[in-house]
Amino acid sequence: FRITDFVLGMSVAKLKLENADFVPSRKWAVGTDLFFIALSCCLLLLPSNGVWEFLMIPVLSLPLCVLLYLLTTCPNSLTVRALNSPILQELGRWSLPFYLLQFPVFFALEEVFVALTKA
User: Fold this and answer.
1) Is the pLDDT of residue 32 over 80?
2) Residue 54 and residue 85: Cα distance in Å, rounded?
3) With helix as H, strand as E and coil as C, how does 54-92 read?
4) Cβ atoms 96, 102 nearer than 8 A
5) pTM to 2 decimal places
6) Are 28 and 74 in contact (CB under 8 A)?
7) How far is the C-alpha of 107 from the C-alpha of 2, rounded, in Å?
8) Does residue 1 carry a pLDDT above 60?
9) How far, CA to CA in Å, does 95 sit from each of 29, 60, 85, 88, 99?
């Protein structure tokens, strides 16, 4: 699945570079906002089970590529302006380190609990 994601990402980047002179209308901006809302609602309403989580990456690759293209093409959409807000950018700066920190902490605690149960 990873090669498909790579090809889709490169295609979006190439499409963006080829259409660098494109000036989006207000309809494109509204379409970007509606697409973002629809995709977000779909993700929030889907059940959380093993089958869907396994299929999530290949199923979401194309819609996320479309969203990425729209977000880079329509800087005047409300979604882009909201994502560019200083508050969300600061949250992003803090969330990635915490996300990356959870794995070593989880594995270390797992080792501690396994050692305690064996003792």
Assistant:
1) yes
2) 33
3) HHHHHHHHHHHHHHHHHHHHCCCCHHHHHHCCHHHHHHH
4) no
5) 0.60
6) yes
7) 26
8) no
9) 28, 22, 15, 10, 6
